[in-house]
Amino acid sequence: MKKLGLIVVDLQNEYLPTGKLPLSGIEAAAANAAKIIADARAKNIPIFHIRHEFANGEAPVFVPGSDGVKIQPAVAPTGDEPVIVKNYVNSFRDTDLKQQLDNCGVEEVVVIGAMSHMCVDACVRAAVDMGYAATIVHDACATLDLEFNGVTVPAAQVHAAMMAAFEFGYGTVTSTQAYLAAK
């Protein structure tokens, strides 16, 4: 079995119903993420928390120092679990995430978090491009409705399209229940 590492992407207050960018299903996703995090802690699987901030406050969300950038209490890091602050969609860009994964001997990443179509997507694709096997726990991820060219795409369809793309060419997609039962 490959050495696992859990990447928790951007489960921050900004995405809660009280935040500036609420996601569809974020509370259920965070509850599932908390189960996966607890399991990782029990099994000594290294956990890497990702926290998004826009440097210089150039956007109205994820403003440095705001309540919105804080990691949600249900999934907050404990002990010496690293928090990697990123300023871009991709968790690997201009961060030491790869170095930290490699230092822990991680060969396979389990990815959970937000948003399915942005930061989770970028993290999964970059990880696979760097040679890590990937597992995505679909019900521990969340997203929102998108709009393009006058067409609104409901969050459930956005999420399903991302998970289908991951399953097609990037890794294993599973549920929290199946993940916890298999590991």
From TrEMBL:
Q: Which UniProt keywords apply?
A: Hydrolase
Give the stretches traversing the membrane: none
Keyword Hydrolase tagged: yes
One Pfam family name from the record? Answer: Isochorismatase
Q: SUPFAM superfamilies, from UniProt?
A: Isochorismatase-like hydrolases (SSF52499)
Answer whether the UniProt record assigns the keyword S-adenosyl-L-methionine to this protein.
no
> Where in this chain does the record put each Isochorismatase-like domain?
6-147
Concerning Gene3D superfamilies, the annotation shows: Isochorismatase-like
Record CDD domains: nicotinamidase_related
At the top level of its lineage, which domain of life is listed? Answer: Bacteria
- GO MF terms on file? hydrolase activity
What InterPro entries does the entry give? Isochorismatase-like_dom, Isochorismatase-like_hydrls, Isochorismatase-like_sf
- The protein's name in its UniProt record: Cysteine hydrolase
- What is the protein's species of origin? Vreelandella nigrificans
* Organism placement in taxonomy: Bacteria, Pseudomonadati, Pseudomonadota, Gammaproteobacteria, Oceanospirillales
